């Protein structure tokens, strides 16, 4: 199994509070991703990183920011949580070698509830 | 962007039965993956298969990239096969993201 951990695994918070989710990998992969999973939508990309301090937006990035100061850690921050951000958040990693996009591996997920 | 459709949306089978899950996509891809999300929510990689055929035990997958579809075969189903199966693709013309289908929910009855 790919070495990916997420913390916390569960969190309940109130509207308007800041929240930071952490993804940690031990695989030294260059690419890291944050997805959210909601009923009826499958998984959707929030942000991704292609190296330390290199990040880009996904399709549902509004209200989220990310940071990557080390290869192994990718942080997702909700500056001011809203009820619409209640979801399950998955981190993923992959490597890119030459012209080949390698497969993505997913962490165990974080269930976030915003009251 | 690329569209991914999975069928059927739901499937209920008796233990021991065989099944075929289908994934259609609307554009050329350089990555296609099949995942199993178990009842505990964990996403398990089944196949990385942008083209061709692969087999792993009772599971096999075929992707016909030129016709823009992939099939996942499950033989001799077991109750542990229950869960949601996702197909995800990366478009040749998109960014780094995987685009997921909405999944097939498989329920295996003992």
Report on the architecture of this protein.
The complex is a heterodimer of chains A (115) and B (110). With 115 residues, chain A is mainly β. Chain A contains no helices and 13 strands. Chain A has strands at 4-7, 10-13, 19-25, 31-38, 42-51, 54-57, 64-70, 73-78, 87-94, 96-97, 100-101, 105-106, 110-114. In chain A, the strands form three sheets. In chain A, strands 2, 4, 5, 6, 9, 12 and 13 form a seven-stranded mixed beta sheet that branches. In chain A, strands 1-3-8-7 form a four-stranded antiparallel beta sheet, with no helix packed on it. In chain A, a hairpin with a 2-residue loop joins strand 5 and strand 6. Chain B has 110 residues and is an all-beta fold. Chain B is built from no helices and eleven strands. Chain B has strands at 4-7, 10-14, 19-25, 29-37, 43-48, 52-56, 59-64, 69-74, 83-91, 99-100, 104-109. In chain B, strands 2, 4, 5, 9, 10 and 11 form a six-stranded mixed beta sheet that branches. A five-stranded antiparallel beta sheet of chain B has the order 1-3-8-7-6, with no helix packed on it. Chain B is globular. Classes of the chains: A mainly beta (115), B mainly beta (110). Chain A binds chain B through residues 31, 33, 40-45, 48, 50, 56, 58-59, 88, 90, 92, 101-106, 108-109, 111, and chain B through 1, 30-31, 33, 35, 41-43, 45, 48, 86, 88, 90, 95-98, 100-103.
Features:
heterodimer, A: about 120 residues, mainly beta, 7-stranded mixed sheet, 4-stranded antiparallel sheet, about 60% strand, B: about 110 residues, 6-stranded mixed sheet
Number of helical regions of chain B:
0
Helix content of chain A: under 10%
Structural class of chain A: mainly beta
- Sheet with most strands of chain A: 7 strands, mixed
**Which whole number gives the mean pLDDT of chain B?**
94
Question: How would you name the oligomeric state of the polypeptide chains in this document?
Answer: heterodimer
What is the C-alpha radius of gyration of chain A, as a whole number of Å?
14 Å
Question: What is the number of beta strands of chain B?
Answer: 11
* Helix and strand element order of chain A: EEEEEEEEEEEEE
Q: In angstroms, what is the radius of gyration of chain B?
A: 13 Å
Structural class of chain B: mainly beta
For the record, give the distance between the C-alpha atoms at the N and C termini of chain A, rounded to a whole number.
Answer: 34 Å
Q: Percent of residues of chain B in beta strands?
A: over 45%
Q: What's the number of helices of chain A?
A: 0
Shape of chain A: globular
Backbone shape of chain B:
globular
Mean pLDDT of chain A: 93
User: How much of the sequence of chain A is in beta strands?
Assistant: over 45%
